[in-house]
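Supplementary Methods, section 5.1.

A reviewer requested that the exact input to the structure prediction be made available. We therefore reproduce it here, unchanged from the version used in the analyses.
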Amino acid sequence: MMSKGENPYQSPEVFPAAYADKPFRDDGLWRKGKLLVMHKNAALPPRCVKSNAPTPRTLRRKLTWHHPAVFIALLFNLLIYAILAIVLSKRATIYIGLSDRWFAKRRRAILIGWGSVLLAGGMVVGGIAMVENTLVDDWVGAVLIIGGLITFIAGAIFGLVGARMVTPTRITDDYVWLKGVHQDYLATLPDWPYNP
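The structure derived from this sequence is encoded token-by-token as follows.
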């Protein structure tokens, strides 16, 4: 029977049974060492996760994580790894606060990454054209092709790493552990009371 004042249409609280005897924070945010731990449904405060500066701007992040042991499958077969990674991955969508400065840094990393990839494509095509051209030494074309491949890899890595603001170290059905959050931001949060 429902007591007076209860809302019959309110959604039930989602809380894992393993933590039922522990105190639960209403906002679902904690710190564990250098990691931010958050409930998947928690809203992050309107502060930049990289600088702790107040900001109204947010960036939507779709996070995916699987247990590191899945990488062992790479020793056997790339296809097996891909299937296991897809099947065993945990996902979460969060909105992180970012200041204008960090939005600009992220945009710059993306532009440099894509610019490097496009430049690399031009270098490889130019190198192939020079190898086929009888008036130019083959080594010039080979240098362009190799340089293009190196530029492609370096640019892609730079773009991916530079654009990534936070990285999940673990995702469960209910919680997300994030690294890359500013220490002053973490200092405002209580310690994660559970283990792990």
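The radius of gyration is 24 Å. These observations are discussed further in the main text.
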